[in-house]
Amino acid sequence: MIRLPSILLATFSLLAWAQTPKPAAPSPRLKVMVDPGHGGDDGGAKGPKGLKEKTAALEIGQAVAARLEAAGFQALLTRDDDTFIPLWDRARVANAQGADLFISLHLNAARAKAARGSEVFFLSLGKGDDEDVVAVENAGAGAAPASAESVVASILDDLAQKAFLQDSERLAVAVQGQLNRLAGIKERGVKQAPFIVLRGAAMPAVLVEVAFISNPKEEEKLKDAAFRAKVAEAITQGVRRYFAETNGSVRRRMVGAPG
């Protein structure tokens, strides 16, 4: 029997270890920040039978987060209870958490009770398409902080979101199409508006007006867990379609927010 020197045995062991296939490092899950609108003292719009926008938005947000998790995403919520978060802070929460997408959820309202359907907005740095909706959703935000540092930060925020306007539009189109197809909600189109909640998001960002809480029929739908599940599935499929169309690219990393 030939005995190999111990140094040769050690060498062979090291070579064998080096050639053993290593398990691939798991790829990080894409993060989606779900932002249920309003909360706390800010109840938002109110339905004919008393349903508050803040309540419906939270229930939809929780359903969306659960569905996104089931689909393999990491879902984050700006609020998971009846808490008020200033509009200026919501995108900053998404930035701080390193979110890859930002989706703010709201319910529309109109004087005409027959108004119905969903519409999805992405940021406009100008006037926008629907001044009435902008006035309602930006109400109570107040002026941006006026310190020199805040002014500089605001300029940088606008530049950051401007870099993502095309991707935000793609996300808006994908989500709107799925709301119409899967949730059976009348499509009112994709629009642009200067929503404060979208400013400063260092990732593609949209605001979804899921339905009209002022419409008695849609208010009843919003109370139905099965309908909210359809909305959650539609938004999730919209997110998946967006990433499929962009080959899974996550451009927000270029902005330098933590990931």
UniProtKB/TrEMBL annotation:
<dbReference type="InterPro" id="IPR002508">
    <property type="entry name" value="MurNAc-LAA_cat"/>
</dbReference>
<dbReference type="InterPro" id="IPR050695">
    <property type="entry name" value="N-acetylmuramoyl_amidase_3"/>
</dbReference>
<keyword id="KW-0732">Signal</keyword>
<feature type="region of interest" description="Disordered">
    <location>
        <begin position="21"/>
        <end position="50"/>
    </location>
</feature>
<dbReference type="GO" id="GO:0008745">
    <property type="term" value="F:N-acetylmuramoyl-L-alanine amidase activity"/>
</dbReference>
<feature type="compositionally biased region" description="Basic and acidic residues">
    <location>
        <begin position="38"/>
        <end position="50"/>
    </location>
</feature>
<feature type="domain" description="MurNAc-LAA">
    <location>
        <begin position="91"/>
        <end position="240"/>
    </location>
</feature>
<feature type="signal peptide">
    <location>
        <begin position="1"/>
        <end position="18"/>
    </location>
</feature>
<keyword id="KW-0378">Hydrolase</keyword>
<dbReference type="GO" id="GO:0009253">
    <property type="term" value="P:peptidoglycan catabolic process"/>
</dbReference>
<dbReference type="GO" id="GO:0030288">
    <property type="term" value="C:outer membrane-bounded periplasmic space"/>
</dbReference>
<dbReference type="Pfam" id="PF01520">
    <property type="entry name" value="Amidase_3"/>
</dbReference>
<protein>
    <recommendedName>
        <fullName>N-acetylmuramoyl-L-alanine amidase</fullName>
        <ecNumber>3.5.1.28</ecNumber>
    </recommendedName>
</protein>
